[in-house]
Input
Amino acid sequence: MPAIPSTKPYRIGRSKTGLGLFATKPIKKGTKIVRYFGPLLDSKKAEDDAIENKYLFELDKRWTIDGSIRENVARYINHSCKPNAESDVKPRKKKIVIRAIKDIEPGEEINYDYGTDYFKAYLKPIGCKCEACEKKRAKKKAEARAERAQAKAKDERKAKKKAEKLTKDKAGQRAKARSKSGGEMTRGTAKTRRPVTGKRGKTKSAPAKTLTRQAKAA
Output
């Protein structure tokens, strides 16, 4: 890594994506942080146009800065979808300066948006690992977990209600069966009762008694 003078407000340090550039002093919004520099490549020259690396910074359709040289400290600045700095491109001067667009505190990583073309070519295939995207992914994962937990709880509630209904239905069926069985037993007992079998004889009127002789004599 290149040596950085102590007067500079930044240092090279370990980042989530490898190496990065970190503030060592407060950097105010609008402050020029560092220049992005390197050999100028002319797209009209075949040998220049054939050069490919991740540190090519296009000034315009013709000119590109090859920032892969070690002396270019700005090459260590990582991409962010919500950056605290930006690239101030000056095509006529063939110059690029990284400038703060927010107040940057000591220890904070300096970053800027690499642009749509770079993002699609290098970052999208592997997934952007900037802090903003990491937070977005973490939020989506948390929401997905919450949705799964809600769905599970809903299924458990449904299963519980179904089990309770099934238990209630079975209890009702048993009660109904007991009631029906008791009714049948009562009706059966009434049928098996024997009525009194004694026959009532017809009452015969007593025959008139023959008058006694005394009565007759009277």
